[in-house]
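hey so i finally got around to running the thing on that chain from the lab meeting. sorry it took forever, my laptop kept dying and i had to restart like 3 times. anyway pasting the input first so we r on the same page abt which one it is
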Amino acid sequence: MDFSCEHKPVWVGRIAVAACEECAEVDWFSNQGPVDSSEAMAALFGTYDLLGPLDALGAPCPRVLVYAPPSARKRRNLDALPRCVWLKAGPQLWMSTDGEVLLLATTQPLLFENLIRGA
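ok and heres what got predicted. didnt touch it at all, straight out
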């Protein structure tokens, strides 16, 4: 984490999201302290619908997965993230949003396949 920038957490339910546009990192917290990235992402975006893979330009890898929120209430979870910035969300996993959909990118083929099967 780059401590020269400011990481202000935004609470979304029981998860605090500290997403930094400057250093392109995201950290996850709860009242008890740090939360594993996969647990936090499942809590915030686990009900999102996989629209499918998409060829990508400017992403950390050539293909990304596109997820749509199931409701306007769940779409508000995306407000915790800066728009149009790739954030390192976990080991070999990046995320981005335009405010309407969630994009996930990974350089690990097995994780890519697991994300497709898990939807």
